[in-house]
Write a structure and sequence with these properties.
The chain has ten helices and 15 strands. The protein has 430 residues and is of the alpha/beta class. α8 packs parallel to α9.
Length: 430
């Protein structure tokens, strides 16, 4: 006896659906090889931010020499060999060149934020486009949310530079934000006790504040976060952490090797990680030697070499200093910027913006360094091998410090992947 027509159709539909699902799963298994998990052994990150857009063709991805006067595209400077065979850098990175076996210039970073510094800065700090519904956290807040501080009584995340929302904690909350300072000769202003407040008065105030909290316990989330921040600030105002800012304790010759204002920021970053700070951002954005920073339109490019030399001295000193203290493998140094610069020169002899191929840099951190990763064409304009998205670059940073780049966090009940599905550069972990 035949089954009813409707039953037969239902059976045929279920059988067909099962066959289709099996086929799709089989094809997916054949087409996709699972990415092996990688996990580094670094404990700290020092992230150096070059505001304005560092030109890769004039620094870490040099090509044939150009001529701005005759509008001939190419590098502004000559290239020099490095410690890694086949890898060259700009002539003004002469101190870093012998150390490139501890460094990987990732030459194929790219995104799609065109000609907009603020949006590109956000992308290079959060790994995502600006959203109207989600306040994404920065890479510093992500890592410190997952790892916390490396020691008691220190902040996990410090910004040496001006505060900005792109560096912030987003939906993770204020307790995962940063402590910032702009003056390397003293600690953060908010942690410095006014001259008129004696230790006795401070102690009396703290007792009164504790009594008020016990009487009126915080229930609102924002109030709780504020209270937690205040309590942390009180701990940080103690002598152990504040002594990190006494740079005059360092040998004079070492301070001279680091160089001026920017170099002293890098030296301070080393002192802070020694005390247990997990993530530091050092901004190269105060009193630029060339007057305009890395955004070298028109004649702003004329003194670009002064910025490159300043970066060269500070970065090479930081690498060697960390290495001498057995801290280089434990500390990942990262250099990022909004975007790169095209090989062509503008009407004033400078360069515009380029997002489709630019360089970011990794050093130390226990990685297997390559000198350079990825390849661009003959003018550093297009990627020809091993493209790296911003989420991929972030995933590499996360993996280097033991943070799972595939983990999901939650904005309320909404799952948010830490790196927007980025994949670490596998070769750096082998």
């Amino acid at each position: 006896m035949k089954p009813p027509e409707r039953t037969r159709h239902r059976r045929d539909f279920l059988a067909g659906s099962a066959a289709l699902a099996t086929s799709l799963l089989a094809n997916q298994g054949l087409a996709a090889t699972p990415t092996p998990a990688v996990q580094g052994r670094a404990e700290h990150v020092i992230s150096i931010w070059l505001g304005g857009g560092m030109g890769q063709i004039d620094t870490f991805d040099p090509k044939r020499k150009g001529d701005p006067k005759n509008r001939k595209a190419g590098s502004y400077y000559d290239a020099i060999d490095t410690a890694v065979t086949g890898v060259q850098v700009c002539e003004h990175l002469e101190l870093l060149a012998p150390l490139m076996d501890r460094v990987t210039a990732v030459r194929t970073v790219h995104h799609n934020v065109i000609d907009e510094h603020a949006a590109a800065t956000n992308r290079m700090h959060t790994g995502r486009a600006i959203s109207g519904t989600v306040r994404y956290p920065s890479i510093g807040s992500l890592i410190t949310h997952e790892r916390g501080a490396a020691a008691e009584g220190v902040p996990p995340y410090v910004l040496i530079g001006y505060p900005n929302v792109t560096r912030g904690p987003g939906f993770l909350g204020a307790q995962h934000g940063y402590l910032y300072l702009t003056d390397t000769t003293r600690g953060p202003t908010g942690l410095t006790r006014p001259d008129g407040i004696t230790p006795v008065r401070e102690s009396r105030r703290n007792r009164l504040l504790s009594a008020l909290r016990d009487t009126n316990p915080a229930t609102d989330r924002q109030v709780k976060e504020y209270v937690a921040t205040i309590e942390q600030s009180m701990k940080l105002s103690g002598p152990m952490f504040s002594s990190a800012f006494q740079l005059d304790q360092e040998p004079a010759d070492l301070r001279n090797r680091y160089g001026g204002e920017f170099g002293q920021r890098c030296l301070l970053s080393r002192r802070l990680i020694e005390r247990g700070v997990r993530f530091l951002e050092v901004s190269h954005n105060l009193n630029f030697l060339n007057g305009i920073g890395w955004d070298v339109h028109n004649d702003g490019i004329v003194n670009q070499h002064r910025l490159i030399r300043e970066l060269d001295g500070a970065l090479s000193s930081l690498i060697l200093d960390l290495e001498s203290r057995k801290l280089l493998d434990k500390t990942l140094i990262v250099i990022t910027t909004e975007f790169g610069r095209p090989p062509e020169f503008d009407s004033g002899g400078g360069r515009g913006h380029q997002v489709r191929a630019f360089s970011c840099v990794l050093a130390g951190g226990g990685l297997t360094h390559q000198g350079a990763w990825g390849a661009t064409d003959e003018m550093s304009k297009k990627i020809v091998a091993d493209p790296v998205t911003v989420p991929d670059f972030f995933a590499t940073i996360c993996a280097a410090v033991g943070v799972d780049p595939h983990k999901h966090l939650f904005d309320g009940d909404r799952p948010v992947p830490i790196t927007d599905r980025g994949t670490p550069i596998q070769k750096l972990f082998t």
